[in-house]
Design a protein that fits this description.
Helices cover 45% and strands 14% of the residues. By secondary structure, the protein is α/β, with parallel strands linked by helices. Strand 8 and strand 9 (283-286) form a beta hairpin. The chain binds 2'-deoxyguanosine-5'-triphosphate, calcium ion (2 copies) and zinc ion. 2'-deoxyguanosine-5'-triphosphate (DGT) binds next to helix 12, helix 14 and helix 15.
């Protein structure tokens, strides 16, 4: 694991603090540098060892930023950053988590009202103080008040995309300890919920105390909250991590229990009771003939019939193993009993990505770089869908129709040199009334049309449904991108009738997207499940703005699994021939 992500986060914090002080240009170069550092293939720590010149070889990193990176790696601190933090002692992450509040707003509100926390902000907004600050009106104040609950959730629940890499790194670290016989995530992170309260980890070992020590010694730990003999909790990279330790022969029982969900487990325990069995974190026990008091007081009363493996837990109830993503008490236990569980899609089924950006709009890489990355990923095809200009596109990032025509030629040229098949596409905007922001003649000339809502995301449900159905029915559209426009922890987005969307999509042969970006995961698992029941095709896309973002695919795949998708439901698992027939249709 490289330290690039950590250094990139510091550079971004730098940019935020400079922005808050209204410094010009500099924040932009810090942000750009952060992006390149994050994606850089070599660990910055290694580059620093080689010298400052090596650090400067990272794109966007000049001598000023390079010397700060060196300073940080060598001293664990950047003096200038510490000074900025002292001048502006605000909870930047917490405050900028409020939709519409950026670093500049934070700076201005700190100057005028001394606001440093979310509680301060809420109190000031409720007291009507914000509208008295120059540059702020009552509409802004109202907007802030409306969005504070989302920001508050952000301070207690974490995006899967933030927590999962922390969990993966921790698992790899724990497995390096020989005394760890088995280690797995459990809880909501194993079920791939889009947001998680904490990271649950389960370890099988004979020497729990020693493994607890390994755990609390982990270099990413910020604070040790609890260190017992069978469980421990820490805060690592801002996330609470609960570790439980069990002997190997009850690992399966504990894994099943601590994976949840609570409601799924309640349902299973009911089935167990009907068979005179008792299910607990220690396994499944045959309690026929065990007295009532004994049953209630001794969790291991009776004869143990399962518990080494998770499969054995389900088998004791005559059920096949149920994938964690389905364990939400949404009919999965009945489906398992009827042997009607779906054959869920897997990442290896995916043959290409259809919705990606390049430097032509707001992406960070060239068409060729994206194509090479797709080759490396083993893809057969890749869609290039840069933004079209239109409502919701800030700073002129979107392409006009004539630029889209030029880009088609550019894509065809690269296509001749690479092994993946490139589709010339666009991400058009679905305007407020459902019209697309690109001319029909250009749409017809493209191989692939994604259309997504980017503006007017506070419409009521009926208007949103009509808007999106109209887009779905447009003859040139292939994929409706991030259909609700939700941003986790920031805004709810549209709440259309999924039944009407999916019915229209099935009829018009338009795919509904699962946007795999960790802040979106849009459609959600439950909406996907409804959509495929009405026969809507699904596309899973990372909406990558750089090659590194292809790695987000797994969040989309697990969302598809939460939506009970089989490979055939998802168009980008299809053969090139079938996909092209779909796109042409
Ligand atoms: P989260 O962390 O809020 O995103 O959600 P979970 O599902 O990870 O919940 P968490 O961390 O409180 O507990 C992990 C799993 O352990 C949970 O899904 C079910 C199981 N579990 C934990 N404590 C209890 C309990 O007191 N009763 C029952 N039935 N199950 C529990
Ligand atoms: Ca949890
Ligand atoms: Ca927990
Ligand atoms: Zn996009």
């Amino acid at each position: 694991m490289t330290r690039n992500v950590e250094v990139a986060a510091l550079l971004e914090e730098f940019a935020d603090l400079l922005d808050a002080q209204d410094v010009e240009y500099k924040p932009r170069s810090y942000r750009r540098a952060a992006e390149h550092v994050r994606d850089h293939p070599v660990d910055v720590e290694e580059l620093v060892r080689q010298g400052e010149d090596a650090v400067q070889e990272i794109e966007g990193v000049g001598d000023a930023i390079a010397s700060k990176i060196v300073e940080y790696i060598e001293t664990d601190e950047i003096e200038e950053l510490e000074e900025l933090r002292d001048e502006l002692p605000v909870r930047m992450d917490e405050l900028t988590a409020v939709e519409g509040v950026g670093p500049k707003t934070v700076g201005a509100l700190y100057e005028a009202l001394g606001i440093t926390t979310l509680d301060d902000l809420e109190a000031a907004a409720e007291a009507g103080e914000i509208q008295t600050v120059s540059g702020f009106g009552s509409k802004t104040e109202q907007n802030i008040l409306e969005h504070i609950p989302f920001a508050r959730e952000a301070s207690t629940r974490h995006l899967l995309g933030h927590a999962r890499p922390v969990a993966d790194e921790l698992l790899a670290y724990l497995r390096r300890d020989d005394r760890v016989e088995c280690a797995s995530v459990a809880g909501s992170i194993r079920r791939w919920r889009p947001t998680i309260g904490d990271i649950d980890i389960l370890v099988a070992t004979d020497t729990p105390e020693a493994v607890v020590e390994t755990f609390t010694d982990w270099e990413r730990v910020d604070t040790v909250l609890e260190a017992g003999s069978t469980k421990a909790s820490v805060r690592a990279r801002g996330v609470r991590v609960d570790l439980r330790l069990v002997p190997l022969d009850t690992f399966g029982g504990a894994l099943q229990y601590f994976t949840g969900s609570r409601d799924h487990n309640v349902r299973l325990r009911q089935l167990a009771i009907d068979r005179d069995l008792k299910m607990s974190e220690y396994g499944v026990f045959d309690i026929a003939g065990v007295s009532q008091t004994e049953r209630e007081t001794n969790p291991r009363a009776g004869e143990r019939v399962a518990g080494d493996t998770e499969e054995s837990m389900y088998a004791a109830l005559d059920l096949p193993w149920i994938p964690p993503e389905l364990r939400e008490d949404a009919g999965e236990v009945d489906a398992a009993a009827e042997d009607a569980l779906p054959e869920l899609i897997e990442q290896a089924d995916v043959r290409g990505e259809l919705h990606n950006h390049t430097e032509w709009s707001d992406g960070a890489a060239t068409i060729e770089e994206m194509a090479r990355a797709a080759e490396d990923a083993g893809y057969t095809y890749l869609g290039i869908c840069d933004h079209a200009t239109g409502p919701g596109m800030v700073g002129g990032v979107g392409l006009r129709d004539e630029e889209l025509r030029e880009q088609i030629d550019a894509i065809r040229t690269v296509d001749e040199d690479v092994d993946v098949t490139l589709y010339a596409g666009v991400e058009a905007n679905v305007e407020e009334d459902g019209a697309l922001s690109v001319g029909d003649d250009v749409l017809a000339a493209l191989d692939l049309v994604v259309a997504s809502p980017h503006s007017a995301l506070d419409q009521d449900a009926e208007a949103a449904t009509e808007r999106l159905v109209r887009a779905i029915e447009h003859p040139e559209i292939d994929i409706l991108g991030h259909p609700t426009g939700r941003m986790l922890h920031r805004r709810e987005g549209l709440s259309p009738s999924i039944e009407r969307l999916a019915t229209a999509a099935a009829e018009a042969r338009t795919a509904l997207e699962i946007n795999a970006h960790p802040a979106r995961l849009d459609l959600s698992g439950s909406m996907v499940r409804a959509a495929i029941e009405y026969g809507a095709p699904i596309a899973v896309n990372t909406d990558a703005h750089s090659p590194g973002e292809f790695a987000n695919l797994r969040y989309g795949i697990h969302t598809a699994r939460r939506g009970w998708c089989e490979p055939g439901d998802v168009i980008n698992t299809w053969s090139q021939e079938d996909l092209e027939a779909f796109l042409a249709d």
